[in-house]
Design brief:
Blueprint: E1 7-9, E2 26-28, E3 35-37, E4 42-43, E5 45-49, H1 53-56, H2 59-72, E6 76-82, H3 109-124, E7 128-134, H4 152-165, E8 172-176, E9 183-184, E10 187-188, H5 190-203, E11 210-212, H6 222-225, E12 234-236, H7 248-256, E13 264-266, H8 291-303, E14 308-311, H9 314-317, H10 334-337, H11 341-354, E15 361-363, E16 380-384, E17 389-397, E18 400-403, E19 411-417, E20 423-431, E21 435-438, E22 444-455
Parallel strand pairs: 5-6, 5-14, 6-7, 7-8, 8-11, 12-13
Antiparallel strand pairs: 1-20, 2-3, 3-4, 9-10, 15-16, 16-17, 17-22, 18-21, 19-20, 19-22
Helix pairs in contact: 2-3, 4-5, 7-8, 8-11
């Protein structure tokens, strides 16, 4: 096939990232696999983990962080009210503790005033705040600072208080869990989470969207609570301890097969600049996850059918600075880390997905006539049900063959999207014979690409 050398800048005018304050809530799409605004517009979740946001930053720093994330295209910030690191006993930057006498039934309004302001600042910047009422160690005693303070009674009281406090804020998403399982061995914490969810539902008059953030490994929320009526969105955590190229695409595929259909996403893939496999003791020779590792996981989980994905940086989630004790060997402070390449490139993924129809997007491995490989070589493909486009993510640049029979057009237009730069290089127009064999502009490890095949008009 003929290759064209013209380099085209990726079109940004089709969408406006963070340009308008949020005025409507989110809901699950009709087919159950995606999210949309209440006005019907598709919503692609691009999250960032700012877990210790309320606990470790002051107002000026929070605004700086939100400005940075909105400018890069993030539209969801995941943050915790009762923080992980001594969150009940170490005050925030304004010397306020979240609970009176460590009792969830008596929250301290002075502490939550900063969260109130952050909700408003987020809305002004076009950001949804995915609010965790508590990190999981406040419920589940396996590890962490704790202390465990919740039971089914005060979990409901606290959930209802929170729900009522933020019932008029349309940019709130609720996330329960906090890096913990809902069930482990003979321990079952579902009654506590169920009570907290009921409290939030009652406090918001059922005007809310609720997810659950589990710990890492092969489990997602779907293994414990998929059929709970209060759960709207499944999540999993492909995490940082399983090495490179954890098969996040398999977890997405598993969740998409369940009934009733619910959206799913990787809420914590490997963080940029996180040490590889740091538990129980980090071997420095393992190195760090870098932007290439991040891109591979983000794209493959989304192309496998997730409703979006969450990026994270190892220094940013903990807001590492000279004020704080470092957790798991961060290699820089949070302000230095905000502009790392993976954070910029995460925004390119959202731009790509929003430039195509979303609510009828389906994963389709039958598009790949070339074996899709394993681990770092694994490719993922998706298309829309209407047959207007197909996309293939290649973690390693290589020649591939693609089945184009699902694209309803006599002529095809091909292009290579560069996840590293957001530039698109045209690759020609040709008759749709049912198969396209094509090679990206640069091949080899480290050169990942997205092949975009569209109807040619």
């Amino acid at each position: 096939m003929r290759k064209m050398g013209l380099l085209l800048c990726f079109v940004l005018t089709a969408f406006k990232i963070g340009a308008q304050p949020l005025t409507d809530r989110l809901k699950v799409s009709t087919n159950g696999h995606y999210l949309q605004h209440t006005n019907g517009q598709a919503f692609f979740w691009l999250g960032d983990t700012g877990w210790e946001l309320f606990h470790r930053l002051d107002a000026a720093e929070i605004k700086q962080y939100l400005d940075n994330r909105a400018a890069k295209g993030f539209n969801v910030i995941q943050a915790v009210a009762l923080a992980e690191f001594n969150g009940l006993r170490k005050p925030n930057r304004y010397n306020q503790l979240p609970l009176v006498n460590e009792n969830p039934a008596t929250p301290n309004p002075a502490y939550f005033a900063l969260i109130d302001s952050t909700v408003k600042w987020s809305q002004q910047r076009g950001l949804y705040l995915a609010l965790l009422p508590a990190w999981g160690d406040k419920v589940t005693p396996h590890w962490g600072d704790g202390p465990v303070v919740f039971d089914s009674i005060n979990a409901y009281t606290y959930g209802r208080w929170l729900g009522n406090r933020y019932k008029n804020n349309t940019n709130i998403i609720w996330i329960l869990g906090g890096d913990r399982p809902a069930v482990k061995d003979s321990n079952d914490w579902r009654p506590i989470w169920r009570a907290m969810a009921k409290g939030i539902l009652d406090g918001t008059a059922n005007q809310c969207l609720i997810a659950y953030h589990p710990w890492g490994g092969s489990n997602s929320t779907s293994q414990w609570i998929h059929k709970e009526s209060w759960l709207d969105v499944n999540m999993f955590q492909s995490g940082h301890g399983g090495g490179h190229d954890v098969p996040c695409w398999e977890l997405v595929a598993r969740d998409r097969q369940l009934t009733p259909a619910k959206p799913t996403l990787d809420a914590e893939p490997n963080y940029e600049d996180h040490p590889v496999n740091p538990w129980p003791k980090w071997n420095p020779d393992n190195g760090y996850y870098r932007d290439y590792d991040v891109r591979k996981q983000l794209y493959r989980s989304v192309f496998a059918g997730a409703c979006g994905v969450t990026y994270g940086h190892h220094a940013v989630w903990q807001f590492m600075s000279a004020r704080e004790e470092a957790v798991n060997y961060p290699d820089r402070g949070w302000m230095n880390a905000m502009d790392r390449p993976g954070a910029v490139q995460a925004g390119y993924l959202r731009r790509l997905m929003e430039s195509h129809t979303q609510l009828n997007r389906i994963p389709d491995s039958s598009l790949l006539l070339t074996p899709n490989g394993r681990g770092g070589e694994h490719m993922e493909a998706c298309r829309d049900e209407a047959g207007t486009y197909a996309m293939v993510y290649l973690p390693i640049g290589r020649k591939i063959a693609v089945n184009t029979q699902s694209i309803k057009s006599a002529q095809l237009s091909c292009a290579w999207f560069n996840p590293r730069t957001a530039q698109t290089q045209a690759a020609g127009t040709m008759p749709n014979t049912g198969t396209v064999t094509i090679e990206p502009p640069v091949t080899g490890v480290g050169y990942d690409w997205v092949l975009v095949i569209k109807q040619s008009r």
